[in-house]
Design a protein that fits this description.
The protein is mainly β and 120 residues long. It has strands at 2-7, 10-12, 18-26, 28-39, 46-52, 55-58, 67-72, 77-82, 91-101, 106-110, 114-118.
């Protein structure tokens, strides 16, 4: 079994920065995809950024140049550095990972979400 734990959310003023962390724990052989999503009430969850085997993309145009995804494979951890935050970035941020287990098979797991609130 794999557990995914997010941290780093909170309240920040517009223009400020936060760094989210997402760590996966368990019998993991390999990490493939590591992603950050966000969701606001009444809207669908949207992909913010993706890291795939060393490559990375920002999926949402509104965060390009402001958000950066990175990963530490040795720690099974993915980060989302968020700079120049705007009120419209307010959301619950979720981490999703795709892993290969030591016992075999490839599975996806979600974290519980961390709230990011951008407000003065």
């Amino acid at each position: 079994q794999v557990q995914v734990e997010e941290s780093g959310g909170g309240l920040v003023q517009p223009g400020g920065s936060l760094r989210l962390s997402c760590a996966a724990f368990g019998s993991i052989r390999s990490m493939y995809v590591m992603e950050w999503y966000r969701q606001v009430p009444g809207k669908e969850r949207e992909l913010v950024a993706r890291s795939v085997n060393g490559g990375s993309i920002n999926a949402v145009d509104s965060v390009k140049g402001r958000f950066t995804i990175s990963r530490d494979n040795g720690k099974n951890t993915v980060y989302l550095q968020m700079n120049s935050l705007k009120p419209e970035d307010t959301a619950v941020y979720y981490c999703r990972v795709e892993v290969e287990l030591v016992s075999g098979g490839r599975y996806q797991y979600w974290g519980q979400g961390t709230q990011v609130t951008v407000s003065s």
